[in-house]
Amino acid sequence: MGRAPCCDKNGLKKGPWTPEEDLKLVNYIQTHGPGNWRTLPKNAGLQRCGKSCRLRWTNYLRPDIKRGRFSFEEEETIIQLHSVLGNKWSAIAARLPGRTDNEIKNYWNTHIRKRLLRSGIDPVTHAPRLDLLDLSSILSSSLSCTNLLNLSNLLSTQALLNPDMLRLASTILSLRNENPDLLQQNFQENNLCNSSQPQQNHFETPVPPCTTTSNAPCPPLLNQTQPMQSDIEDFLSNFVNPQRNDFTTPMLSENFVSQPSYNPAATAPLENMNFQLNNGDQNLRVDSIISTPLSSSTPLNSSSAFVNSSPEDEKESYCSSYFKFDIPDSLDISDFI
DNA sequence: AAGATTTGCAACCGCCTTTCG
DNA sequence: CCGAAAGGCGGTTGCAAATCT
User: Fold this and answer.
1) Which of these CATH numbers, 1.10.10, 1.10.3470, 2.40.160, 2.50.20, describes A19-61?
2) How do residues A80-92 score in pLDDT, each as one tens digit?
3) Residue A54 Cβ under 7 A from any strand C atom
């Protein structure tokens, strides 16, 4: 019954492939095709398991493999596909010509995953890490520019699920009401300790510090977000339109619901959460932020948007702008709890 | 300059599904 | 239809190179 054994595992070589082995494998496959991996090693004169040969061929020796750095477009495609497919590396690789599942998996684990984490994004759910989101939103709004975000509205939108965060928000709110100058002073003092890292809002747009009291008006933000709206719309049309991306994917907000690891408690509020800009009739929905146009080369990838302009830094920054919830290093949270 | 630590990636491992006798 | 191997896939490991102290 059944097939003959794949290969006798005894005496087979393991570890890195030598150029001679590669040559044997390539020559054999070019002549006979990949075909039967069970008999291939013997026929090709290789002391390797067929499985090892297949892996070596599919991950390294195949002539159509594209090597070298991942482009912005490739990286954005990986992120988008991963948000839909999860760790289905072979499915993702099928959408990226010349890239192998192993390569994409490695690139995800060593680059993209870390970058998303640093940007406050959960690499599993692609949702913002709400603990950081809440904290950053609270602190940036209450300490840096109190008119930017209506904290009371934020509280009412159930954004603050963590009891500690809720307590912290309440504390800040009450402190702000009782003595608005105190928080501002605290923030400015802390900020001096880390002046090399300028404060930025959620969209990588530097917010000039409010030099007067917390009730003073802040520079208008809407003018800065206005160009972004068109980019978002452009991105969404591209994202849904298969003509450009060669694949169709549902909206990201729907993806969260369909993901096996989806945590309703963590992401459900996102569906309904509006960040209400204080002076505006324009609300900036979180799901719109999630769909920030990664593919757009402008303005997010334009050099003017970044302090550092090296390719790696640009990738870092555009991931950060994907979701910018970094907690300022200068802030000592324990002071407020 | 040297040792320690971190990073990146090729390759392996083990599980699951498909295929075959 | 059954059982076993092949094939495929995602997770993990080990090591060399790069970076830091």
Assistant:
1) 1.10.10
2) 888 888 888 888 8
3) yes
